[in-house]
Amino acid sequence: MYFPSKKKNAVYVSPIKQDIHPIDFSLPTEPMNHKRKNPDPSPDSDEPTTQLSSPFPDEVLERVLSLLNSRKDRNSVSLVCKDWYDAERWSRTHVFIGNCYSVSPEILTRRFPNIRSVTLKGKPRFSDFDLVPPKWGAYVHSWLLVFATKYHFLEELRLKRMTVSDESLKFLALSFPNFKALSLLSCDGFSTDGLASITTHCKNLTELDIQENDIDDKSGKWLSCFPENFMSLEVLNFANLNSDVNFKALERLVSRCKSLKVLKVNENITFKQLHRLLVLAPDLRELGTGSLLQDLTPRQHSELKSAFNNCKNLNILSGFYEVTSIFLPVLYPACTNLTFLNLSYAALRSDELSNLLIHCPLLQRLWVLDSVEDEGLEAVGSNCPLLEELRVFPASDPFEDEILHGVTETGFLAVSYGCKKLHYVLYFCRQMTNAAVATIVQNCPDFTHFRLCIMNPRQPDYQTDEPMDEAFGAVVKTCTKLRRLAVSGLLTDLAFEYIGKYAKNLETLSVAFAGSSDRGMECVLKGCPKLRKLEIRDCPFGNAALLSSFRKYESMRSLWMSGCKVTMDGCRFLAQEMPRLNVEVISECGNDGCQADKLYVYRSVAGPRKDAPPFVLTL
Amino acid sequence: MSVPLEHDYIGLSSEAVPSMEGSERSSSGGLNLNLKATELRLGLPGSESPERDNGVGVLKSLLVVSRAKRGFSDAIDGGSGKWVLSGNGGSEAELGKGGNLFSPRGVNGGGKGGGCECNNQNTGLGSPVLKDGVVPPQSPKPLQEKKPLLSAPAAKAQVVGWPPIRSFRKNSMATHSPKNDDDAEGKSGSGCLYVKVSMDGAPYLRKVDLKTYGSYMELSSALEKMFSCFTIGQCSSHGVPSRDGLNESRLMDLLSGSEYVLTYEDKDGDWMLVGDVPWEMFTDSCKRLRIMKSSEAIGLAPRAMEKCKNRN
């Protein structure tokens, strides 16, 4: 195999798992036209440049590479040599862009001509928590305009934290004849009118997945816009929309779409209606229920139970907006094959959860509210030996509600004793101890995602009054596979020393109300070689910390710092030293020396944003 | 936004105030302050400090924001059940330093000098304790008698974006109250009609249960009490604490006068003036409340009338 020496000296950073490596774009992106004019493979190709370079014709290489799905593998492949780079770019059909401002649609479409599926992420994650002002950006429209010409056969679009307008949705619906799958998560800027455009015009739609968006929910008419002969739907998720849909239209839709595998209805769907849907679609793999508040007569109870019994393929259950105890036993027959149970909108008690879990022996993922309390989690530990992921959300707003429910270290411990395969946890609790966490990670050393949120900021170990440093120290020392960490509680720089020293596989770190000095952040930046995303709020980290390892930011996707101690001068210095980074400050005041309220730094090959609003200063 | 100091709540035993002032004025350092804070009692003489739920110790020094907080809540709950808004230790000096007690942006603000240790000044959160004058059904109504604190946690000031839960989920929490143990059937949300109340200029929201009121008068007076602290002086993000003490009549004036109006968002998403429709109709359609500056509320009235006409 010929490896041109120029390639070896090309400037690049080691392949990053999830992004298109922006530095790669410095490699020639012009297609080698003489190979590509004729799309049909020509086995007799005799281009002199390739004869020496590869034992395979390009087409074979492309075929082989087209089997590669992993982004990481594809990134690695593209760095081997020019031929592989080309083969990879021609064979890639799905592209993932973790930060929509890191690359432009023009650059993207130039490199990858055959994309059918795009995943785009926009705003920084803290926008989910209202830390990013509205109209910040991440508009999908400019992407769609380019895609309309370059990716005419686009089939799938998955957007997260992007701003999408009704216009954009209409444009999407009209511009891509093969369009099949739309997924919108945590997006904003659109209304149900935009959805109506999709349902009206996308004749080949297989997936419509609308999750947790800030949507102007005007009406449920969009559902009725599916044509009467439309049958291709496989995934329909409108669980988070509030308006009533026309149930008859939904019924007809479900009965027509024989391949429907995922149906998640909203809370306006009653259990009677749910029953009708289940009878029509017994092959569902994923079901999201509606509101289950009404009383059931014994006959209704047994009908519903029998309908659930017929759903032999049900793996995933969610919904449960307002559910009564009476209803839950109806589900038991359907729980045998459940792998994922999402009860995070249902404030269940511990006994209700316990009774339910007895029927879920194969459960791998469980999301609950902390209304189940420690006892409920003990039931998890006892009944779910295959559990891999647990998320416990707060049932009530801890700042507004007087009611003391919730989970403590006891519940978490109980789960760790019973669920040895646990590797993903998101745990909102009101108290925690260092000792408990140490035991938990001893029981479950394979954590890849450890997100602990002690809800009271800066709260120490409630038994010893000490900082929670040792807890997270134990996590990073024991869990060598840790990729994502969120810390909380009272933390000094020591916690970050531990993280920097031991968390060698850490990719995402979220920090809030923690640390004692710049040293904390410095340790992390110096120590975590695989760090990609660092998000910090309300910590005493200033310019010294920010600038301590500023070259590192080019190997990361992004850095967010808000409520810290960095100043405009520090940010300007960073911007100056690192021209390939976009250094943006969301600012209330523009003076020098002024605090930089919110700082967002990310690498980009697209240069500074052209669509930044006035409150976003690009330095 | 800084909060006026002796913000004492209407009708609260005035004997509490001098004790507050006495203990606070003298304190200046962080450590002193916290001890003072935990000693603070607003209740009747002889009321004891209940055990704190989580057994947080008192003497940990500078990193004691949370403790100070609990101290206050103990005091408050040991007292009247109404809330008193005060500063970190309540000292005017603290506030005067520009410690941003609540910042809509969480912990931030110009006043953030000082060391890296989290001391009271730097934290925008939690130092003053607000206890909702209107509490969920299972708690006693706000009365002058003290109620035992044991089961209820400290009410805390809200921090923007914390805990880190998506707005969508937070909104679901707001509309579906969690179950309580008294509810045998386990239905959530029955019997309560919580709506969020925001006020222009106030750094955080409150929630009220509309079912606990029978008329606009009751609602209005409860809201006035709840938000009275924010109306003292002009509240602004970088405002200087008002030197005026709270005056009951001034409060009433502000709310029943022309400076603020009470509006609500109805099921259709429109903002209407409160009071135009019969009370029952209002509770049926009200999704959230907002205390708006009068200057911003121009133009609401005509719509409200029109809408009523359309409805009838």
TrEMBL record, chain A:
InterPro entries: COI1_F-box, F-box-like_dom_sf, F-box_dom, Leu-rich_rpt, Leu-rich_rpt_Cys-con_subtyp, LRR_dom_sf, Transp_inhibit
One Gene Ontology term, aspect cellular component: SCF ubiquitin ligase complex
Molecular function in Gene Ontology: auxin binding
Metal-binding in keyword set: no
Source organism superkingdom: Eukaryota
SUPFAM superfamilies recorded: F-box domain, RNI-like
One Pfam family of this chain: F-box_5
Domain F-box: 56-97
Location of region: Disordered: 22-55
Pathway membership, UniProt: Protein modification; protein ubiquitination
Alphabetical keyword list: Auxin signaling pathway, Developmental protein, Nucleus, Ubl conjugation pathway
Principal place of residence: nucleus
BP-aspect Gene Ontology terms: auxin-activated signaling pathway; pollen maturation; SCF-dependent proteasomal ubiquitin-dependent protein catabolic process
Compartment list: Nucleus
Name of protein: F-box domain-containing protein
Organism: Quercus rubra (Northern red oak)
Automatic annotation (TrEMBL), chain B:
Sorted UniProt keywords: Auxin signaling pathway, Nucleus, Repressor, Transcription, Transcription regulation
Chain residue ranges for the region called Disordered: 1-32
Main location: nucleus
InterPro entries: AUX/IAA_dom (IPR033389), AUX_IAA (IPR003311), PB1-like (IPR053793)
Domain PB1: residue ranges: 192-294
Record flagged with keyword S-adenosyl-L-methionine: no
Annotated compartments: Nucleus
UniProt key word Membrane: no
This protein's GO CC annotations: nucleus
GO terms, biological process: auxin-activated signaling pathway; regulation of DNA-templated transcription
Subunit structure: Homodimers and heterodimers.
Family in the record: Belongs to the Aux/IAA family.
Role description: Aux/IAA proteins are short-lived transcriptional factors that function as repressors of early auxin response genes at low auxin concentrations. Repression is thought to result from the interaction with auxin response factors (ARFs), proteins that bind to the auxin-responsive promoter element (AuxRE). Formation of heterodimers with ARF proteins may alter their ability to modulate early auxin response genes expression.
PANTHER family hit by this protein: AUXIN-RESPONSIVE PROTEIN IAA17
Protein name: Auxin-responsive protein
